[in-house]
Automatic annotation (TrEMBL):
It catalyses: an acyl-CoA + acetate = a carboxylate + acetyl-CoA. SUPFAM superfamilies: NagB/RpiA/CoA transferase-like. The keyword Cytoplasm does not apply. Belongs to the 3-oxoacid CoA-transferase family. It comes from the Bacteria. CoA transferase having broad substrate specificity for short-chain acyl-CoA thioesters with the activity decreasing when the length of the carboxylic acid chain exceeds four carbons. Keywords: Transferase. This is Acetate CoA-transferase YdiF. The active site is at residue 326.
Amino acid sequence: MEDVLNKWMEAADAVEQIFDGATIALASNGGGVLEPDAVLAKLEQRFLETGHPRDLTVVHALGIGDGKGSGLGRLAHPGMVKRVIGGHWSWAPEMQRLAKDDAIEAYSFPAGVISTLLREIGAGRPGLVTHVGLRTFVDPRIDGGKINARATEDLVELIELEGREYLRYKPFKVDFAIVRGSSADESGNVTLRHEPADLDVYAAALAAHNSGGRVIVQVKERAPDGYVPARLVRIPGILVNTLVETPGQVQCVVADGDPALSGEALSPIGEGFYEIPTGIRHIVASRAAQELHEGQSANFGFGIPGGIPAILAQQGRLGTFWGSVEQGIHNGAMLDGPMFGTARNADAILSSVDQFDFYSGGGVDVTFLGMGEMDGDGNINVSKLGASVVGPGGFIDITQGARKIVFCGTFEAKGLQVEQVGARVNIVSPGSVPKLVGRVQHITFSGEQARIAGQEVLYVTERAVFRLEPNGVRLIEVAPGIDVERDVLARMAFRPLVDEALLRQAKQERAA
C-alpha cells in the first residue's frame, strides 16, 4: 500500500507524473463544477514550457471549462493531445477547433456511455454493452462515434444477444484520473460534501486505479480534525495516489460555499429566482410545458428546455412532477445557463453514473430536449453543427430510454424574429438557416429507433408542432396567426404528413 504521507503534493509536482501518450480521465461539468483547474493549469504550463507530456488521450463525459480557456481548454494545444473521447465539447472552443482542423483524433460518445464505460473498465468487465446509441452517429453502421478524418480506429462494435442488437463500447487502459473534491483526510479519503454534484468522479478514479494507473485529486483543504466521516467519503483513500490542496478553489462560478447548491442545507427561494424566458424561447417552452402531466418523472435538457421549469414555476406547477437532470440532480430549484445541471434545495444528488442507469433503464416518463436539425425521418441533430463538434452530452442516453420525447427548438435559425400578440404568432423576420432539412448532418436521435422502441415523439417549434408516426412525421398543430403553406410547408425541405382538417382550417382562415 502506498505511503499515505506522500500523497500531498503541489500541483506542479503532481503533473510531473504524467507521461507522453498517457490516457487521462476527467470528471467535471460546466460552470466550474468539480473542475480541477489548478492541476490542469499546471499541466498546461508544463507542456508550454517543456513540450511534455504530449500525445495524450483525454476522456470526459460532460462539458468542462468556461469557454475562455479553463478546464479542457488547458489541454487544447497542438501536440499536447492526440485523441479526445468527449461527451460534450461546447465549453472548450479551443478543443473544438483542433477537432475541426483534424489536429486531433476526435470521437464523441454519449455522456452516460462514457461514464458507465469508466465504471465497467474499473470493474474489469469487457466494455459497456448497451442499447444506447443504436442507429445514431455512434453506431458503427453510421459513424462509430468518429467526428473527423483523423479518427480511424473502431472503438464501438455492433453485437447481438438473444436476437437483439446492442452496441459494445470497447474498454481501454486509463493511466490517470484527474478529479476534484472538497477536502481529504490524511488517509486520502475524499469527500464531495461541499460540491454541487458528484458526477462520475468515482468511476474515473476506479478506472484509473484498477487499470494500474494513478489518481490525482484536487481539494480545497485538508479535512478539519484530519478526518472525513465515513458516510461522507466519495472516493476512498485506497484509490487516491496524489492530493493537491488548493485553498483558492471555489465551489462554482456563481457561488463559493452555497450549502443549498451542495445539498447540505435549505435556503429560501424567492419569487424572482426563476428568470422567465422571453420571446421565441417563451413561446416554445410554454407550448412544450403542456406535455408535462401531474405525477410524471421528467427530464429537462439544456437550451430552450432549460426555461421550462421557470414556466412551470410561473404556473404554480412545481412540486406536481419529479424532475431530474443528467448530472444526478433530482428536483429542487434548477439553475440554467452555465450552471445547468445544478439546483438549489435538491431532493437528491446522485452520481451521474447512477443517474444514467436510471435514464437508460426507462426511469423517465417524458423528456424535453433541444433541437438543432430535424428531417423527414424524424431524426434530430444536436451533436455536430456545420464543422463544429458539439457532442451529444446525455441526449442519446436520455432519448433512448424515455417513454415520451418532446423536442424544443426554433423553426429556423440566424435572423429569425417573431412576436406574440395574445395567442397569435407573427413572423417579423424569417431565419436564413433552415432547421427542418432533407437529411440531418448528424443523427443524434434516430426516428427509426424510436419507432422500433414504440416511443411517443413530438417536435415543438414557435409556429408548428409535429408528431412522429410509423409512416413519417405529421404536422399536427399550427400556432394562431401562422399560415400553413407560407410559413410552414414552403419553408421546409421535406413534405410532412398533414391532416386535411388542418389544411381546410388554414384555407378558411385565409378566406376570412
